[in-house]
Specification:
34% of the residues lie in helices and 5% in strands. The chain has 362 residues and is mainly α. The longest helix is centred in the first third of the chain and has 20 residues. Bound molecules: 2-acetamido-2-deoxy-beta-D-glucopyranose (2 copies).
Length: 362
């Protein structure tokens, strides 16, 4: 494998953050580039219902997986001048995530942006690949008791799931994800022969390779249990809620967000790459559950929490030294994948641009 400075490697990440902070300090926000008109959809009277992976019928699971494969095969729209490595519609979204990585993590709009991004993916599968269902979610709390169950999660099933771990790769790096057990190419399942081209990190030039996973049952047990989930949803306001969910950039301050990334991606897997993590289709299963955690938190006091937003516009700028906090009018873009929206447009999963619901909440 190429030199991969991973999400998990704190020193590299910090150096990057400093570099990017100096570059972006004066670059303003991610305000939409194309000024697309915010034409709202019709009222949401018949939301599609997102369900937990293991509650889908086998037929529904296979339908979903074939829609993902279709999206992987559909010719992309990203010009080669922007991302020579991007070939498919699936990769159009990976490009967007890579391009905006330093603008959409450890910020107030982290959850709104990823809610929108996941809904745009769901829409792509439905409208461009004939998928009839809603984006499923992965309730990882069901797979960590005990942690030795982790690799047996139905999500890793070789036929009715996303395939499992990679073969173990020796490594004694000081910044390895604790408890990692894999690192090689995913050896079974529908994505066994998938070609990953984007990344590592912000490289858009095209580096064809296999999909890697490096599962860590220990990490999952520590950060993806009901205890961590309850700690997250018991926070009193959005600012505290999102910080507990985001955690910090090191393993020891992981929240649910980092918990899902490192428990699947470990040191060597794409899910552990802060930039290119949407390369692994499991990304959307994890982020849909994070969205469900947010909606669970919102639903406990909808009246106040449908409009509760705060946190920095700029990466980790918790003291507001570079810019202010995000507000409902803060603009977000997913590039050529959909029109621009504001944070307000994403606050209600059953209103504005969004029209889905969850079958159950925490
Ligand atoms: C949740 O439980 C795990 C496993 O016992 C533990 O490692 C972790 O620290 C706990 N987290 C919280 C927030 O209590
Ligand atoms: C900015 O957001 C943080 C996190 O929610 C909050 O603690 C802080 O009070 C906010 N600052 C302002 C000026 O509103």
């Amino acid at each position: 494998m190429a030199q991969m400075s991973r999400f998990g490697k704190l020193p590299q990440l910090l150096i990057l953050l400093l570099l990017h902070l100096s570059v972006f300090a004066s670059a303003g926000t991610i305000a939409g580039r194309n000024g697309a008109k915010n034409s709202r959809q019709a009222a949401c009277t018949n939301p599609i219902i997102r369900k937990e992976w293991r509650t889908l019928t086998q037929e529904e699971q296979l339908d979903y997986l074939s829609a993902v494969k279709c999206f992987l095969e559909k010719p992309g729209l990203t010009p080669a001048s922007v991302a020579p490595g991007a070939v498919s519609r699936y990769e159009d979204l990976v490009v967007t995530h890579i391009q905006q990585t330093m603008d959409i993590h450890f910020v107030g709009h982290f959850l709104p942006w990823h809610r929108w991004f996941t809904a745009v993916y769901e829409k792509g599968l439905r409208e461009e690949c004939g998928y009839k269902g809603a984006q499923p979610y992965w309730d990882w709390t069901l797979d960590v008791n005990p942690p030795s169950n982790w690799a047996k999660s139905p999500v890793f099933d070789p036929v009715y799931g996303f395939g499992g771990n990679g073969a173990f790769v020796e490594s004694n790096g000081p910044n390895d994800v604790p408890g990692r057990t894999g690192g090689g190419c995913v050896a079974d399942g529908p994505f066994k022969d998938m070609v990953i081209r984007l990344g590592p990190m912000d490289d858009l030039s095209g580096n064809p390779r296999c999909l890697h996973r490096d599962l860590s049952p220990y990490f999952a047990g520590r950060y993806l249990g009901m205890n961590q989930t309850i700690l997250t949803i018991s926070q009193p306001d959005f600012g505290q809620f999102t910080r507990v969910n985001d955690g910090g950039p090191s393993f020891d301050d992981s929240g649910l967000h980092g918990g899902g990334h490192y428990s699947v991606g470990g040191t060597f897997g794409e899910m552990g790459d802060l930039y290119a993590s949407p390369s692994d289709p499991i990304f959307y299963m994890h982020h849909t559950n994070l969205d469900r955690v947010w909606w669970s938190w919102q639903s406990r006091d909808l009246q106040n929490r449908l409009t509760d937003i705060s946190g920095p516009q700029m990466l980790m700028d918790y003291e507001n030294l570079q810019a202010g906090n995000v507000t409902l009018d803060f603009k977000m873009s997913v590039g050529l994948n959909a029109e621009d929206v504001t944070v307000r447009d994403t606050m209600d999963i059953r209103g504005g641009y969004l029209c889905y619901d969850y079958d159950s909440l925490y």
